[in-house]
Each structure stands twice: as C-alpha cells, then as structure tokens.
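Researcher: Here's the sequence for the chain we discussed earlier.
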Amino acid sequence: MKIKYSKLLLGILLPITYLHAEVTTLTPPDAKPGECYAKVVLPAEYETIKEQVMVKEPSESISIIPAKYDTVKAEVEVIPETHKLTPIPANYKEVAETIVVKPAILSWKSSLNEDGNPISPVILAAITSSGIDIQSAQSGDCFREYYIPRKFKKISEEILVQEEHNETEVVPPEFETIEKTIVVKPASKKLVNVPAVYEEVEEKILVAPEKTMWKKGQNPAQKVSGATGEIMCLVKVPAKYKTIKKRVLKEPATTRIEEIPAETKTIEIKKLLTDSQVKNTPVDAVYISAEKTELEKEAQFAWYSTKNKIDDKLHFSGQQVCLIEEPAETIEVTKMVLDTPAKVDSEVVPATSEMIETQELVAEAKVIKTPVEAEYKTIAKKKKVTDERVGWKRILCQTNMSKEIITTLQKRLNDKGYDAGEPDGLMGRGTRNALDKFQRESNLATGGITYETLDALDIKLNHQ
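Model: Thanks. This is the structure I predict for it:
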C-alpha cells in the first residue's frame, strides 16, 4: 500500500535531511540477536542556567509644588469693538446666447451623399501613399481610384513531345542438347557415436553456514513526522543444506567409422552455341509548335482628384472617397448676467467693559525629582547543549511487537491526553500522530516506537 503524506508532514520531514547530525554507524552498535533498531530523530539537549535580569529600570520620583496667586480687581473689556454688517444683494439681467451643442464634423465617405458608406483607414493610407495630401482636402473634395489593365503578349515555342531514343530488339540465344554424368554425392566416411554409460548417486552439501545478520525491519510508526524509515534487526540465520543427485561415469563414450559410397546421375544439358544479342535502332525526337500567352506588365493603380483631367488609358475601379462636412448643432439659451454686484454696509459697535476679580501669579510651580534605583530578578533559562540529530535507537518492529502492545500504547496515550483513537491494536494515522506529538512534547526521539518511549508511557514488555 502506498503511503500518502500530507503537506504538513512533508514540511516537517524534509528539513530532517538538513540537520547537522552526528556521524552514525552503518549498523547499530552493541546489538543482540532478536533486537530491532532504527535511525530516529534525537531531540536537542538543553541545560538550565541562572541569569539576573533587570525587571525595573532606574527612574526618578517626581513631586510638584503648585504655584501661588493673589486676587486683584481690574477693568476688563468683555465685548470688544465690532462692526455691524448689512448685506445689499446683487442685481441681474437676462441676455440671449447661441451655444454649440455639437461641433461641425468632417468625415470621409464613398459619396457626397449623407448616406454614403464610411471609408476605412486602410484606404486612406493607400491614397496618402500614392502621393495625395488628404490633410489639405476641403469639404466637397472627391478622389477616385484608376487603373491601367494588365498587358499580355503572345509568343511561339517549340515543345518536345517525344525525346530522341533507341528501339531495342533482343535476339534469343541458340543451344544443343548433350548427355553428362555427374556425382550428386561423393564417397565419404561416417563417424558413429557410442554414448557413455552413467549411474546416479545422492550427496548432501552445505550451502550456507549458520550466522547472524542485520535485516531491514518494518517500522509501525514510520509514517510519523521525523521518521527516517531505516530499521535494522539482528536475527539468527540457520545453516542451509541441499541434497543433490550426481551422475558418475561408468563407461566412457567411443566412436566407430562407417564407409559411404559415392552417388552419380546421368542428365541432359544444353550447350550454348550463340549467346543472346541486343539490336538497337535509333528514333529521332518529335517536336510541335505552340502559341503561349505571357504577362508583359502588371496592372497599375493610382488615385486622382475628380477635379483633374483623366487620361483615356486609365479605367475607373469603382473606388471613390469624398470629404463631407456635417454642420454644427446649436441651441438658443437665456442667461442671467450680473448687472450690479452685491455689497455690504458697515456700522461701528463700541466695546463694553466690566470690573472683575483676577488671579495674579505670586510664585511659579516647582518640580522636585527623587532618584529611584533599578530592580533585578534571578530567572532560570534553558541553553542548548546539542542540536537535533539522527541516531540509532532500539525500537519495536515486526519481530518483537504484537497487537496487545499497540492496544496498550493507545490506552496510555489516551490517558495522557493524546488522542490515539479507539484502542484497536492497529497503528493508524491517529495513533502515529498522537505518538509523534507525545514524543516531541516529552523531548524524546521521534520516528519509531523506541524503548525510552515505552518507559515514558510505563509499558513493560515480557521479553524486555
């Protein structure tokens, strides 16, 4: 079954290949037969150090002595001198004015009639390229396209209808019939093989001696983020034997010689008297005279003003452009025009004063600053000792794991608040995600069900 990783898991797995990992051995060190190991991601290690941190910077305590005032009587202007303004409105008068609502428009059309077809910019560009300045044209000017037709000429030509060649006649060969004796099979010797005689015997041989070897194991948690996928199990491999049947030579093979006489046959053959010959007869080439029409000069096109006199050799092509003017549109409106502008009359209003009590400053306010010392607090901080790396850890795999162990693992994870789903003894996605989250938050190696993870979950194995 193919394993499909989510984009989140891939984002976690890929950076592992770039960790500054310690150099690990190709096989786990100090391993025993029956144990399984895997390359897993070992978490970074930290140490706790104490550091004095300033929690309150040095400052100043500020107190203020307020200002002192005396009460005095004084004449105070409560309403200043002002002006009374009286507006006099403006007077307007009506005037008539003609307004252009649509300006006069010049346009190129196929005739001087208003219902003529509009002319495309391509045609106007062709007229300009022929040397006519259409920018200087006036309303009512027209231009027409004329052409001189193609000119052809007739010529006579000798056409080859049959090339010069030879007519070939073959004269067949002449033969005479004679008899001849031939050897169809020469005399020879035949070697006859006398096969060897064998007998069969059985023999047991050692194919492979007993040994221990590392085999790749299957990691139930290999889909968890951070898993390297490399699991090694040390297993015993028993010696291998094979029983084979052998053929032993009893009598060696020999040969004997047999004489075979020659075989002959009398046949009739033809003897060549005169060989075949080729007789060639020359035949002259055949020509016919033909009249051909050839283009002498292509048609020519040009634009001319209808005011100009046209040469009789020119033919009107039917293309015509005319510049016509659409008159402007106007309306009559009545406007109100200012006759007398508005103005304002001004009248002075005298100021008003009263005797009131006021406060006079006797002493300014003062600021007194008292220095306050800084405050410090001792805190514990974590300092990284080693980076995250890849290393060998003893894990559970197919040789030392059962459905009961996975069920216990799921229960322990659920008890600690890591949702592994219903305990069913199957290493599904929910169990893998819960295991990975527990290992990361417990600062344990990730990428397999390591024995230190089992210890952290208080899971005991019978064979441990």
